Amino acid sequence: MVIIRDSEWSKKETMSVSVMSSASFLSMGDIMRELDSKALIRSDFILINGAILTTFDLEVFLDEHRKRRESDKNCAVTLLYRKTTPQHHIICNEQAVVVATETSSNRIRFFQRLHKALTSYIPLEIFQENDEITIHYNVLDSYISICSPCVPPLFSDNFDYQDMDDFVKGLIVNEELLGNSMYIHINNEGYGANISNLVMYDSVRQCQLQQNVVIGQGTKIGENVHISNSVIGKNCSIGKNVLITGSYLWDGVSVGDSCNLDTCLLADKVNVGNNVSIKPGCVLGPEVSIDDGIILPTLTRLQAEEVCDDDSFGEEDFEFNKSNKSIDKNLVGANGHGYICNISEEEEDDDDENTKITDVWGRPFDSCKFLEDEDSSSSEILSVDEGASGESEVEGDDYDDDISQFYREVLDSLHRGYDERVQLENMILEINSSKHAYNISIKEVVSVLVKALLNLPFEYDANLTTIAYGNMLKRLRISLDKVIFNYVRSADTQYTCLLAVEDFMKNHGNFAQSGVTVIKAWYDDDVLHELVIFRWFYNISPENANIKRLIDPFMKWLREAEEESSGD
């Protein structure tokens, strides 16, 4: 319970709060129509979402709106935006917007919520009817609107208006008929964001933090723990050899040894056993327990309480899986505890994993988890969707034959490219040609390239000593590394790159130390990110313990370097 009687909120006793509730309210539009039917709105008012975090001085914007109405009696709404940069990390898909306004007055002439769209089509007549138009793509929607008294009646006249987006688009379409106008105010200072999903929750929290990591009072952390871009609540217990990246652990969370937590949220008193890996997008409700050795799949959502069969909850956006009457021991382990919370049946029919990430966890505007937007207009990468083609649809012996043949052609291309000093662009074109011929995914291209480079010294001399191999590989890398770097553009392909090096180290034990040298060199070249290296290191299987021993000195150096960097 939150007590506000003695807080700042109660110092000024000029505001009264009236709560309206009804089972028939299914949208913001329904509430506006109810306000109109009861004639409760008689003057300008501020329409604000309950999940808003803002430092804006709203009184200033309200005064500005009132002055604007003196010159434009038909002004219905002023929308508040915060100026930012395109594809800023705080903008997610559902909030990205393009707005075209009259430059002289900031009157809105075009509005589009982008969602997944990469292009926006603005009607030609907008430019023909105005001397100058400004297109705003670098703004964050605060979801705060300064409204005139005419707004509730407009919702009543249009029963298809469910939210402000419907309202804005409707007024633009019917501008000549209704005569109403809308304006925007773009603020260059202050803060305003709508925390509508977990991506926004994460982004807003990161903006609030002065450091990359915040650890609550009474929390205990074991040895060799790496935490980045995360918040750890009070009285938590973190075991040894744990990697926590981009995650939120609320109060009283317990995490065992050798765990990997990646972009997840663990609510109060969640218990995670030893050797547990929690994949991106997972949300664990209060008191959920995960047993030792469990790998929790991407986007898993668990709750501790049993399924609710109350029919009154049938209209909710998210439904509990009513077929799940017992704990799934395969998911949480023999000693685990947790029930699956599924999305609605309509969304379950959607096979697009990226759509689920957008709708359930939320997705940064520029990327989903492992797809980073790179400036690669002249590169082969632009035409490859890593999220969709991470696994080839071709299976079986034919695919294995294609991979083998592709590997042979890549090896020949690198061999000839080094001997004949072929230009980088020509080698890439040659590899791309083979890639398309055999329908090879981008991840397989990276894997094959790394293995081909590491095996190339043996093409010159099959009986190389360890020292001779290292020297030869160094010379080859100087000429050929950039061919590989052309394809390593995301955390996903970086991870694939490390797996390929690990495979070489496993199969060529006498030359495994050169694999460590390559990883360090590519880290120094800013091709491999330390968080990806940590994730790979902690996921090396026990059967490859010798590889872990070889790489451990570098990992120790990497941890110390990051600690020094954080200290600075």
Number of helices: 19
Shape: globular
- Rg over CA atoms, rounded to whole Å, is 28 Å
Helix/strand-derived category reads alpha/beta
Distance between the terminal alpha carbons, to the nearest Å?
Answer: 40 Å
- Let me know the average pLDDT: 80
Instruction: Note the main sheet.
Output: 7 strands, mixed
Low-confidence stretches: 310-325, 344-360, 363-396
Into which percent range does the helicity of residues fall? 25-40%
Q: Spatial order of the strands in the main sheet? A: 10-13-16-19-22-25-26
How many runs of DSSP E, i.e. beta strands?
Answer: 26
Task: Name the beta content range.
Answer: 15-25%
Keywords: Cytoplasm, Initiation factor, Protein biosynthesis
Domain W2: 400-568
Family: Belongs to the eIF-2B gamma/epsilon subunits family.
Region (Disordered): 373-396
